[in-house]
Structure formats: structure tokens, C-alpha cells
Specification:
Number of helices: 10
Shape: globular
Order of helices and strands: HEHEHEHEHHEHEHEHEH
CATH superfamily of the largest domain: Nitrogenase molybdenum iron protein domain
Structural class: alpha/beta
Distance between the termini: 80 Å
Radius of gyration: 22 Å
Length: about 290
């Protein structure tokens, strides 16, 4: 009798256990977002990173294994159609039960307008998609990620909440360190790829101009001449370009001028994927700017 009752109770509990007693399967498109998701899921599971190569997210072509990872996921986090232009089409093809979150739509997020017209997704064509380069936005993104995970996986809510609070403290500490590090760094500089205005505005940096808006259209000879005149007239000493490749045009722009070129890495191409990626990106940006300004 006792044994029968025990088996009956176990049978009932099997039906009452939440559907996601096991960790949810989470997929993330880019390393900075994976950093936040990985930190929020610490001790529970690991998200799958979809974009593992250095190819631009604006023109990324998914491999079959990456498509399968998205199809197998219970929850997908991505930045938005302004960055991962391939994602709306992919999401449309997935099972309707898959939950996906474009973090650029998070309530309270600071959006900066792109500083030139480009051909990305029309719904958000006016927004600069590099939202994670602001610590204020990072706080909001972590809250959004934790909320989505808790909603889908309530069995681990306490762990998600504890991880969220730990990440928020770490973001605040990083922000404070960078503010001290870049305090008083007001010298004007030139950017090759206009991807850093969230970081620039957050820490009072003085961007005098940029060569490319990120739409990968080669600048005209006239515009190159204008940029060289800008370097001459403002006596600029720093030009920052985007990893992983130094554009050939950098040599043309800097020829005969006392100006140095430095690599920046907004998306973490040079960094391993993990919880620390976003923090490494931000610290590396601060070190690189400080080294020249």
C-alpha cells in the first residue's frame, strides 16, 4: 500500500513539473549579447552562439549547423534587424513556438540615430544598432534577458535573478572605471567605421568625423579629399578603424600626416565568447582611445 501510494505521488509530480525544469535551449546571434545571456544563465546552462566567424552581421550567411541551432532553440536573443539583417527571414521560417527577442526593442533603451542614411531594414533604418556600447543600455538589456528567461524557465527564477544582480553590479563597476580612465580625453579624432557613437557619447569623446557609415560603400575621391582636409585643418592625430582588417584607404588618408591608426573591436571578433566578452570589449575600447587621445 505504501509503495503504491509513493508511485502514485511520483506519477502526479511528473505531470506537475514545469515544462522547462531542464534549462531552456537558448541561441544568441552575436558575442556582446551572448555575454549578457551567458552571465544570466551561469550555473544553469550555456547559450549557443550563432555567429562564430568574423563576417559582418549585416551580410551574414548562415551555415546549416547555425540554422539548426536556431530551429532547435526555445528562446533566441538578437539585437535587431538593423544589425542582423538576415534574421527576420530566418525567424519567419521557424516554428511559431520559438520565442525570440530583439533587444533593440527593449523598453527604456537609448536609441541614437544613425549619422548617415544606409540600406538596412526599413523599419529601423534610422537607429544606430550598436546599442550594447552604452553601459546604460547594457543594464536594460540584462534586465530584459533575465525577464524573458524567468518567464520561460520559472524553475530557475532565483538563479536568474541572482545572476542578473551580479551582472548589474559588474556593469556599474566597469562603467565607473572607464569614466575615470577617459576623464579629460577631449582631443578630436577620426573614425573609419561609424560604430562607436554610444561609447563616445557615454564618455564625452570628441569624434570629428567618420569615413564610412557601415554600409560598405566605398567613399568617393571627393569625400576622401574632404577627410584629408579635415585631418589637416583640425590637426587630428588619431584614426580608429574596425577589426579585423585594416582598410587600404587608411594609408591614403594618413599619408603625409602625423596621424596614427588604431584598431577597435565593437563586436568582439578578437575575444573569446563568454560572460566576460562585453566587459573585455569595453575595457579594450577604453584602453585604445586612451592610448592615443
Amino acid at each position: 500500500m505504501h509503495r503504491s501510494l509513493t508511485l502514485y505521488l511520483l506519477f502526479i509530480l511528473a505531470f506537475l513539473t514545469p515544462a522547462y525544469a531542464e534549462p531552456v535551449k537558448v541561441a544568441v546571434t552575436v558575442k556582446p549579447v551572448r555575454s549578457f545571456v551567458s552571465g544570466t544563465m551561469k550555473g544553469i546552462g550555456e547559450p549557443v552562439l550563432i555567429m562564430t566567424t568574423s563576417a559582418s552581421p549585416h551580410h551574414y550567411t548562415l551555415r546549416p549547423s547555425e540554422r539548426r541551432a536556431l530551429a532547435d532553440a526555445d528562446l533566441i536573443f538578437w539585437v535587431g534587424p538593423e544589425l542582423e539583417t538576415f534574421m527576420p527571414r530566418i525567424l519567419h521560417s521557424l516554428d511559431r513556438s520559438t520565442t525570440h527577442t530583439a533587444l533593440i526593442e527593449s523598453a527604456g533603451l537609448v536609441h541614437l540615430p544613425a549619422r548617415t542614411t544606409h540600406h538596412l531594414a526599413k523599419a529601423h533604418a534610422h537607429i544606430d544598432p550598436h546599442i550594447w556600447l552604452s553601459a546604460d543600455n547594457a543594464h536594460i538589456m540584462v534586465d530584459e534577458i533575465a525577464g524573458k528567461l524567468i518567464k520561460l524557465d520559472a524553475a530557475h527564477a532565483d538563479r536568474y535573478e541572482a545572476n542578473r544582480e551580479r551582472l548589474q553590479r559588474r556593469i556599474t563597476e566597469t562603467d565607473d572605471q572607464i569614466r575615470r580612465q577617459l576623464s579629460g580625453k577631449t582631443s578630436a579624432f577620426l573614425s573609419y567605421h561609424d560604430a562607436y557613437q554610444y561609447f563616445e557619447q557615454a564618455y564625452g569623446l570628441n569624434n570629428a568625423g567618420f569615413v564610412s557609415s557601415g554600409d560598405e560603400i566605398s567613399p568617393s575621391a571627393r569625400y576622401v579629399h574632404e577627410i584629408r582636409e579635415l585631418i589637416r585643418n583640425k590637426q587630428l592625430h588619431c584614426l580608429f578603424y574596425e577589426a579585423p582588417n585594416r582598410p587600404a584607404l587608411v594609408n591614403t588618408l594618413t599619408h603625409d600626416f602625423d596621424i596614427e591608426a588604431f584598431e577597435l573591436d565593437a563586436i568582439g571578433i578578437r575575444h573569446e565568447a563568454g560572460e566576460s566578452t562585453w566587459f573585455e570589449i569595453m575595457h579594450q575600447l577604453a584602453e585604445t582611445y586612451k592610448s592615443c587621445l
